[in-house]
Amino acid sequence: MIGESKILTTLRSAIQKSEAEQTEAVFVGKNSGLTRYANSYIHQNVAESNGTIFFRSAVDGKVGVASTNSFRQESLLRAMRNSFEIARFQPPNPDFKGFPKPAKFKKTNTFFEPTAKYTPKQRAEVIRKICKEADKHKVTVAGAFSTSSSEVAVVNTNGIAVYQPLTAASINLVAMSDSSSGFASGLSRRVVKIPFAAITETAIKKCLDSQNPLELEPGKYDVILEPEAIAEIMNWMTYIGFGAKPYLENTSFMSKKIGKKAMGPDISIYDEGANASGLAMPFDFEGVPKKKVFLIKKGLIGGPVFDSLYASKNKSRSTGHAMPPGGSEGPLAGNIFIAAGKKSRESLLSSVKNGILVTRFHYINGLLNTTKTVMTGMTRDGTFRIKNGKIVGAVKNLRFTESINKAFCRVGGISRETNLVANWWDDLGCCSSPSVYIKRFNFSGKTEF
User: Fold this and answer.
1) CB atoms < 10 A from the CB of 324, how many?
2) 297: phi then psi, degrees, rounded to nearest 5
3) Which of 17, 200, 331, 401 is paired with 97 by a 20 to 30 Å CA distance?
4) pLDDT score for 428
């Protein structure tokens, strides 16, 4: 960790030497450790320490981006000059109205010393206990356990100078037998809050309960989608629908439909960067405070998330969802919450007379029809048959093809318990999700395993 004072002082010093009309510097640094295990033993332990500094220079409405991973003054100045030269040869962007100006944001504690100081030996001890428990049940385990500390800072010539330290810890666990597998995971900025024993128990139980699965014909079934399955769907919804870029390009289900019904009245989905029960981050990569944004409110479309450029295109205001400079995906939701329901997971299960429980999905393709949120993907690591409110055995994995919006119009219940699941954006985002009971979910294919 370099620290707030040195990072902000160094970046301020650099941008003061810029030839551009406006200049922005973004620092993203990370120290991470990762322990991988397979066949019930550790096979890899890696550590990485790196920092990237992005510069954006603006000249006559033209913007250039360059970066370096050296924090030396000469490297910073070289990268900044490169961004200036790149800007000079860009076409003008009529939507660029300048970099943001300072604004107050809620202070949020996102850094926890025990996580930052967690050692490879401590990670190994956690995995040793997992492997020991797996041996008792004659199953093997595989997965990864990571801990990290990060720093994010944004400085620009309009007066923004913000800094946030972060920590994160995550583990995923697959328990396997000759004919089955079970999955569980954990995520928190505080490693001491991850319930390793419960995660181990869940994965092993799912593995044991899903042995010798039976074949089930494709068709429409009532389903309970557990948090991992919901979170994987939300990753795709974030990418194809919740951001301003697809919204303005008319490829999002939200496009020209603000305020209209998209899902059932029990469904509310929102992004809240300052909510510490997720992976909180109080500002975005432009230094703009993150606002709470209702993407879906009681089934109605609330609206997408914006950064400053896309807000300008839309003649609106940034919601504080800019990604690191140079990306092409536009603003993205990061700290997503699906509003919990009132039922326990047990009562949710008991309400299903004839259906399927899905632990998680993989290989989802969300690009089939983005305006109708049609996706396809496979079940994985624990797919179970439900009869008269009880799990009666395992079934072989199935392929689904379904409009997520239409599926979420057929909600039969939502659990009050939620799980935190990592998203695609690593330790900068997550999805807090309950289990969701959906009626007549469409499974379009079957597998041999």
Assistant:
1) 17
2) -125, 110
3) 17
4) 72
